[in-house]
TrEMBL record:
Protein name: Release factor glutamine methyltransferase
KW Lyase (keyword) present: no
Source organism of this protein record: Paracoccus alcaliphilus
GO molecular function, one term: nucleic acid binding
Coiled coil segments of this chain: none
Protein family according to the UniProt entry: Belongs to the protein N5-glutamine methyltransferase family. PrmC subfamily.
Keywords: Methyltransferase, S-adenosyl-L-methionine, Transferase
Catalytic activity from the UniProt record: L-glutaminyl-[peptide chain release factor] + S-adenosyl-L-methionine = N(5)-methyl-L-glutaminyl-[peptide chain release factor] + S-adenosyl-L-homocysteine + H(+)
């Protein structure tokens, strides 16, 4: 039987041939994932070195081959493992949701610097933004809405597993929302239709297009949000929206036209990533 190391080296070659970036990292991550599947969650990351030196059992080989097959088809690692780390927690991920990304954590940090006791998450997806905020601010109330029932099921599961009390509702932006909130947050579909062809296969072919693009110029969601916030914010409330790093001026202009003061917030790479809009009473 081949050792775990031999399996990983062969998998690395396959992934590199398929055009996968950082094939070595993905092969190791998927090997650890199948170890958990076959041997149970008691296998920790620091046990990986020992398993790499040992002959692999047939069940492990079959599970690893299946995982590498999926990754070679450019399915994201998070969809294969069903998990993605974000902020302080691991979140369930499925093909019905966007994969939570590190740059979105800039929105979480900005939100936790603001005063609020209630939050609305528009287009909640996995619920990663809403659940992270409510877990960090005990006692606050939160509502996550999405047009996708399948995404809402994932968000509910994440809230339950992480132990956060949150409400979820199907809604096309504000269509089913009657309440007011101190804070409104969103990571909306902001990729222009013309840019979709430039996306990596992991995104373009595996993540839901409805959550990626508005099918137009990438700014439609911000126009919907800006038009509806007056009826859904409490006095002196705030809005935080994630943006594409070239959209800062356009999104600021949309919210300023709705009467807001705005500020750009950068991600850890120094790129414009979040627009903060404040609506003074």
């Amino acid at each position: 039987m081949p050792t775990g190391m031999e399996l990983c080296l062969a998998a690395q070659d396959r992934l590199e041939a398929a055009g996968v970036d950082d094939a070595s990292r993905d092969a190791s991550a998927l090997f650890l994932h199948v170890l958990h599947q076959v041997l149970g969650p008691q296998v920790k990351r620091h046990h990986l070195a020992a398993h790499l030196q040992e002959p692999a059992c047939p069940e492990l080989i079959a599970a690893f081959d299946a995982a590498i097959d999926a990754r070679a088809r450019r399915q994201p690692v998070s969809q294969i493992t069903g998990r993605r780390a974000f902020w302080d927690h691991d979140f369930i991920v499925t093909p019905d949701t966007l994969d939570p990304r590190p740059e979105t954590e800039a929105l979480i940090g900005a939100a936790l610097d603001l005063p609020w006791d209630s939050v609305l998450d528009l287009g909640t997806g996995t619920g990663a933004i809403l659940v992270s905020l409510l877990a960090a601010r005990v006692g606050a109330r939160g509502l996550g809405c999405d047009i996708s029932p399948a995404a809402l099921d994932v968000a509910r599961r994440n809230a339950h597993l992480i132990g956060v009390s949150a409400t979820f509702r199907q809604s096309d932006w504000f269509s089913a929302i009657g309440e007011r909130f101190d804070l409104i947050v969103s990571n909306p579909p902001y990729i222009a239709l013309a840019e979709m062809g430039d996306l990596a296969p992991e995104v373009r072919e595996w993540e839901p297009h409805l959550a990626l693009t508005d099918g137009a110029d990438g700014l439609s969601a911000y126009r919907h949000i800006a038009a509806g916030v007056a009826d859904h914010l409490t006095p002196d409330g705030h809005v935080l929206v994630e943006i594409g790093h070239r959209q800062g001026r356009d999104v600021q202009a949309i919210f300023r036209a709705a009467g807001a003061g705005t500020r750009l917030i950068a991600d850890l790479d120094g790129r414009d990533r979040v627009v903060l809009a404040r609506f003074d009473d």
